[in-house]
Specification:
This protein has 528 residues and is of the alpha/beta class. The chain is 45% helix and 11% strand.
């Protein structure tokens, strides 16, 4: 939200894990995945081809666990736990001897650190689900608090120092793990810490999943081989391929893949069972794409029937009150936002005027609710002739798979514009659009008329709701040049929005903006 993501925010997993691996679902799946078990430090280049082998390799030769990322995460968790619990030992607690106090602090530290791996807090499939991760961090920290109370001699006593220490420990772990997720996403964008997988089954669903994983490398997965007919996607011609599952193990070994992704709509029941049995026997992680495109995983429940794996889909209906609540949140949030950011807007206005003596406020026609045009307000971050010169910049357009324009080094951006963009100050005037009812705080990005003219009928559904100042795409794929990610995330939000999702997106926007600003003022070295 891997989030993950906002994988963590919306729990938008569309791939169902069968064995040990993390969910690949992935609105993420952001962004925020701990390393997949078996992920390698650098992406292995897939070989030109794969030859058959008749000998079944041992499981250990296929699964190669990497503990590098877990060690990094431990290096964050241990100091956080130790520091917060040591605070208890430095606070005055009348009636408790120094030795008893130190013993209690030591017990709290040991129990908290021991509980974390037992609760699965170093498994990637849990760490992409932010709500589950947070709840288990809370359990681990309160287990430490209970241990502290037992050693101190008052296990049920609600000591203020213990409460503060446990709460601080929870907060510190959550913040550090969020920063870890941001760092990991940046590393994966550069090709590191990705899990190689073999895709089994080829059809239109397989193409969609491949595009999602390929266009969002921060999710941490790399398709290195194909089992099935490769003609569905031209890019698959460059990957090792076998028409039957007989060559699965050989491709996995040759490409150093540690997982298998099953596209069930392209396979028979017998083929699915055969792949699962073959893969799990030889140590390959197995994940399944059920073909639920656009369906949020929070609506899917695992409801076994007579011991068989059945899924139940919750109704997607939204109560009428949610529309009223959304508008109330918009008015209150935008009103408070305008008051709080007024000094920032004034400083930005002065800086822009001094920089090139042009107007500080920028007006542009965008397409909103029901495809109706409206004027959007922004702080001007580009040169005065930016709109006219965009046609001359097609060569640097990174978004080649759709109508949108994106350039990491856009020459039209002014010096002041680069700064206010990094801080998202240029977006603040859109709060006035929210107050007038043309926009919402959360929703799809408002599109240009020339962009909308090239949208297909399905993507035009994004105009069934108001455009937003922030949204799922802005959080999950703001830096991605992929139009496929833009399209998928907008439709995913449209089909699954709720007040709860909006609130989580708003909360996640704050640290995301902060991280974006940090990257501008302190760029990550390319060799990191």
């Amino acid at each position: 939200m891997s989030t993950g993501s906002l994988g963590a925010l919306a729990e938008q997993a569309t791939l169902t894990p069968v064995t040990d691996p993390p969910p690949m679902g992935l609105v993420d799946a952001g962004a925020e995945l701990i390393a997949p078990e078996g992920a390698s430090d650098t992406s292995a280049a897939p070989p030109e081809g794969a030859s058959n082998t008749s000998a079944a390799p041992p499981a250990a030769s296929l699964r190669k666990p990497s503990r590098g990322l877990r060690a990094r995460l431990l290096a964050l968790d241990v100091p956080a736990v130790v520091a917060t619990w040591v605070v208890v030992g430095t606070l005055g607690m009348p009636g408790v001897t120094v030795n008893r106090r130190l013993a209690a602090v030591g017990a709290a530290i040991l129990v908290t650190l021991a509980a974390m791996p037992l609760l699965g807090l170093y498994r990637s499939r849990l760490c992409v689900q932010r709500r589950r991760e947070t709840s288990r961090i809370v359990v681990a920290c309160f287990a430490g608090a209970l241990a502290f109370g037992l050693v101190k001699g008052d296990p049920l006593g609600a000591d203020d120092a213990v409460i503060v220490a446990a709460g601080s420990c929870i907060l510190a772990l959550m913040v550090l793990r969020w920063f870890f997720g941001q760092w990991l996403s940046a590393q994966r964008m550069r090709g590191r810490y990705r899990r190689g997988i073999v895709m089994v089954g080829t059809d239109e669903d397989a193409v969609d999943v491949w595009r999602m994983l390929h266009s969002q490398p921060e999710l941490g997965y790399e398709v290195r081989g194909i089992i099935g007919e490769p003609s569905f996607c031209p890019e698959w011609a460059q990957l090792p391929n076998e028409r039957t599952i007989d060559g699965l193990l050989d491709i996995a070994i040759k490409t150093e893949s540690t997982g298998v992704l099953l596209v069930v709509n392209a396979l028979s029941v017998a083929e699915i069972r055969a792949v699962i049995e073959l893969s799990t026997t030889h140590g390959l992680h197995v994940q399944i794409c059920p073909g639920f495109r656009g369906l949020a995983s929070r609506r899917v429940r695992h409801v076994p029937v007579s011991g068989e794996a059945f899924l139940y889909v919750e109704p997607g209906r939204r109560a009428t009150w949610q529309l009223g609540a959304k508008r109330a949140i918009d008015v209150i949030g935008a009103g408070v936002g305008v008051l709080v950011t007024a000094p920032i807007l004034l400083l930005a206005w002065i800086a822009i005027r001094i920089d090139d003596h042009g107007p500080a406020l920028y007006r542009q026609t965008r397409i909103g609710l029901h495809q109706q045009p409206f004027v959007v307000y922004k702080m001007r971050s580009m040169t005065l002739d930016a709109d006219r010169s965009v046609q001359d910049l097609t060569e640097i357009n990174e978004r080649t798979d759709g109508p949108l324009f994106k350039a990491a080094e856009d020459p039209r951006v002014t010096r002041v514009g680069a700064v206010i963009r990094s801080l998202s100050v240029d977006e603040i005037p859109q709060l006035f659009n929210v107050l007038t009812g043309k926009m919402s705080l959360v929703g799809p990005r408002p599109a240009l008329p020339e962009e909308v003219a090239q949208f297909d009928p399905e993507l035009l559904r994004r105009h069934d709701i108001k455009p937003g100042v922030t949204g799922l795409w802005q959080l999950e794929a703001r830096g991605s040049p992929s139009f496929h990610a833009y399209r998928r995330l907008d439709l995913l939000y449209l089909d699954n929005w709720s007040i709860g999702l909006d609130l989580m997106i708003l909360v996640a926007t704050v640290p995301t903006v902060m991280m974006h600003a940090l990257r501008f003022f302190r760029p990550v070295p390319a060799s990191a």
